[in-house]
């Protein structure tokens, strides 16, 4: 009987001697801002770039959507006014529709009576101005898409340099845990930079597609207007 009690006691003591492994958790905020002053500056810069990219994306998206709205009967009304010789009515109708298509059409109407080549040139020049307005600040998003990953990588390189500097100054006695913590913290700047760059890149390409659709719409309207002028009286 005593033997069994001793066995049970040994089992309990062995079981109690097992080390308790605590799971180490780290929040996203701590991960982002625990990389020292250099890493924090890089993260703040990336957050600013992300804010600028998101602001430009939505501002341009709403502007392009507003510019693409036009009455389906717009060109029919312009055609009726021009064929009936009511040029002023056509200009008023264009002024009522605040859109790139209407402004191009108004530019062409104001040149009626001039050679067809001059009218075409005037519409093309007005079209370039409208495209420039649609693409306002979009190039900044392209710059952010390319610069953000490089800025993040710069933060990682700085963190790696500091980690190896600590290893060198400690004569090889630095704890591996401290080095590993410094290295994975430095890597967070690259992750943040890639996230900002991907978001800016996707937003930029989406705006480019939207702008191209608007440009095609303006080109189609210009062709319709020139065909109208070529119709026999």
Automatic annotation (TrEMBL):
It is a multi-pass membrane protein. The keyword Cell wall biogenesis/degradation does not apply. The chain crosses the membrane at residues 37-58, 138-163, 183-204. Keywords: Cell membrane, Membrane, Protein transport, Transmembrane, Transmembrane helix, Transport. GO terms for cellular component: plasma membrane. Signal peptide: none annotated. It is found in: Cell membrane; Membrane. Pfam families: MotA_ExbB. Residues 97-219 form the MotA/TolQ/ExbB proton channel domain. One of its GO terms (biological process) is protein import. PANTHER family: PROTEIN TOLQ (PTHR30625), TOLQ-RELATED (PTHR30625:SF17). This is Biopolymer transporter ExbB.
